[in-house]
Amino acid sequence: VQLQASGGGLVQAGGSLRLSCTASRLTFSMYNMGWFRQAPGQAREFVASISWSGGTRDYVDSVKGRFTVSRDNAKNTVFLQMNSVKAEDTAVYYCAAGRLGTNWSQSSGYDYWGQGTQVTVSS
């Protein structure tokens, strides 16, 4: 199983960025997907999750109204649209896939992880 995250980069505060995560060697449509982030010196933090069907989405409070998680099961890809970014959004962003977990805001709910993509917001 491989999760390949991309789309990170340097963006000015107030700008937008779209992250993508493409999965291979798993039945993508059967997996719930999550985005987490980790800033230097901090623990990994839940950002957003989306159910296998796309019908249920969840966000950490700090990104609600600014970030949108979506998925395209035909392309085995999950997206994180980041708008109105802030300096505190700077982190390495990871995507994750899970089937049988019950708490999608916890790392333990996921079976597979991508390698991460760096997002840096300049103020």
How do the helices and strands line up, and which of them pair or pack?
Elements: E1 2-6, E2 9-12, E3 17-24, E4 32-38, E5 45-50, E6 57-59, E7 67-72, E8 77-82, E9 91-98, E10 112-113, E11 117-122
Structure description:
There is one protein chain. The protein has 123 residues and is mainly beta. It is 0% helix and 50% strand. It has no helices and eleven strands. Strands 2, 4, 5, 6, 9, 10 and 11 form a seven-stranded mixed beta sheet that branches. Strands 1-3-8-7 form a four-stranded antiparallel beta sheet, with no helix packed on it. Strand 4 and strand 5 form a beta hairpin. It is globular, with a radius of gyration of 13 Å. It starts with a strand and ends with a strand.
Short description:
By secondary structure, this protein is mainly β. It has strands at 2-6, 9-12, 17-24, 32-38, 45-50, 57-59, 67-72, 77-82, 91-98, 112-113, 117-122. Strands 2, 4, 5, 6, 9, 10 and 11 form a seven-stranded mixed β-sheet that branches. The protein has a four-stranded antiparallel β-sheet with strand order 1-3-8-7, with no helix packed on it.
